[in-house]
Amino acid sequence: MSEPILMKGNEAIAEAAIRAGCKYFFGYPITPQNEIPEYMSRKLPEAGGVFIQAESEVSSINMVYGAAGAGARVMTSSSSPGISLMMEGISYIAGAELPCVIVNISRGGPGLGGIQPSQADYFQATKGGGHGDYKLIVYGPSSVQEACDLMIKAFHVADKYRNPVMILGDGMIGQMMEPVVFRDEPGDAAIPEKPWATTGNEGRQSNLITSIYLDPEVLDAHNWNLYRKYKAIEENEVMYESYHEDDSEWFLVAYGTVARICISVMEKMRKEGFKVGLIRPITLWPFPKVAFDEVAGRAKAFLCVEMSTGQMVEDVRLAVGGKAPVHFYGRTGGAVPLHSNIEKRMRDVIAGRTPVVTDYLDTTTKEVEGDETSVPAS
Amino acid sequence: MKPVYLRPKSLTDTVTHYCPGCTHGIAHRLVAEVIDELDIQGRTIGVASVGCSVFAYNYFDVDFQQAAHGRAPAVATGIKRVHPDKVVFTYQGDGDLASIGAAEIVHAAARRENITVIFLNNAIYGMTGGQMAPTTLPGQITTTSPFGREHKTQGYPLRMSELLSAIEGAYYIARCSLHNASHIARAKRAIKQAFRNQIEGKGFSMVELLSTCPTNWRLTPVKALEWVEKHMIPVYPLGEFRVGEGE
Questions:
Q1: Å from A169 to nearest chain B CA?
Q2: Do B42 and A202 touch (CB under 8 A)?
Q3: Do B64 and A70 count as a contact with CB atoms less than 8 A apart?
Q4: How far apart are CA A18 and CA B48, in angstroms?
């Protein structure tokens, strides 16, 4: 265990990857994740690894494919438009069942969008993004420390399931500085044997890394094998945090940095007597449905808060299954939901007021005034 | 009795899916003979592309990775950087290398990737049914240039060997033809050179092989070979375009 170090999120993520035994990084510059490739270009050669700045994200992800297929622990990082370019390669990596880690320090879209924090890539990350029936394991860290811990976990989980893993952090995770403690890591020693890798066929049958199966019966079987793997991941890898799940009637739902704002809203409202709890998914896929089952009988309503116009809220609705209303509040394009607006929205949910989305777009920080109709019923 | 002609050890005993008269079979055999002669079968890793040679891994008995369309040089880069002591080659057609993969091949050369590229140019998209390629000749009829490739709207053939030979990171760039026995022998020498360069750490090597597509050219195998000599070689002159020196 090391002493806490004050580090920028992107650099901490890169350091965590090296400590996890990652030896190969292929990437292309894009804001707001540039500190990751910059850090790798300095540090990976010292660690006996290789850094390549590719000609595009398209090329980066295919270098990742080649290196992963050759048995290496490998990663890339990018931000939203760059991740879109990687989607073809990610589909091939999932199809060929190659382990790797992809970091998306996401920014506002669509198109070129902006460079400020956003959570608008949730659908792309969790619902496929590329073509075909496949799943990424997706982690949504809410602090720099958690980003580091998940980064190390991501490599192990990728190897365990031979599946690509994505760290979906918003620009705030990448750009802010926080103290980090690096756990001792077994590093290389923890990389499992990869007898399937293309290393030259000396003394064995030839190995093949591919995602093409022209025979419908064979491709069908391949897809159902993937499906079974995804089911096992759903059973084993779900991560989430619940706050005050035992006595709360009203639940905030948020991931990433937005969850931290929601936690402070929850704490303030609880002090005022409102029975507010919070569910924070850590794995965005597999989505922690179980967290909602646990509170389903008691919850009067959920308020999902995101830096998007409403993406994870669809999974929340599926998980809640109509047992309680699910409301939404979001800001986009780099605008961050304010504590005051989230609180105002939550008070309206509790009061049963019909939401008008534009009521909550104030950008000024101000205290929410006391409101008789918002007083808790009990 | 002494056998004079055997299947190379690096080829599997498999009937190929290639059309009668297609020169992929010849190119496969040449690469396999070179792998055998250099005694590198156990440490060679191939990268198959998208096109007719998508199933090349069924015919070569070496480790293989199948790459997305055009991305073989990027995939090969990933493999080679992990295993610099292994021999990595891509096997790509003209749609794959000269069109959708133009960026990947240019930058693999620019980075001085120590890989070997076997580039089959038959001036057409074979697998998808005979569409126009960037390498299609002026006036050539394809399913997407039904009136013949017209330079005012469809431009001119892309000469990849000439283009790549302008890149400093490229060590060896040669264009050969597979239309007759003496040219096939020359092609084999170039392929061997391209593999030897990699073993010696010289950097990026590419051999372009002018090839046939009798099916989509609508020609008999014999006429197709004649078409290479008469129509392709004047547009795609043969020779070594770049032979690097030192490291």
A1: 26
A2: yes
A3: no
A4: 31
Domain termination site, one of A188, A211, A236: A236
CATH of B24-243, one of 3.40.470.10, 3.40.190.10, 3.40.50.970, 3.30.450.40: 3.40.50.970
Q: How many residues does chain B have?
A: 247
A53 touches chain B (CB under 8 A): no
For residues B49 and A188, is the Cβ–Cβ distance under 8 A? no
Say whether A96 and B66 touch across the interface (CB within 8 A).
Answer: yes
Global ipTM:
0.96
- Nearest-CB residue to A211 (from B66, B71, B104): B66
Closest CA to B105 of B59, B61, B138, B73: B73
In tens, the pLDDT along A72-112 reads 999 999 999 999 999 999 999 999 999 999 999 999 999 99
Q: What are the domain boundaries of chain B?
A: 24-243
- Amino acid making up residue A357: V
Size of interface A-B (CB pairs under 8 A): 133
Give me the domain span that covers residue A275. 241-374
DSSP H or E run through A278: strand A276-281
Mean pLDDT for each 10-residue chunk of chain B (247 residues)? Answer: 92 96 97 98 98 95 98 98 98 98 98 98 96 98 97 97 97 98 98 98 98 98 98 98 81
Q: Are residues A140 and A169 in the same domain?
A: yes
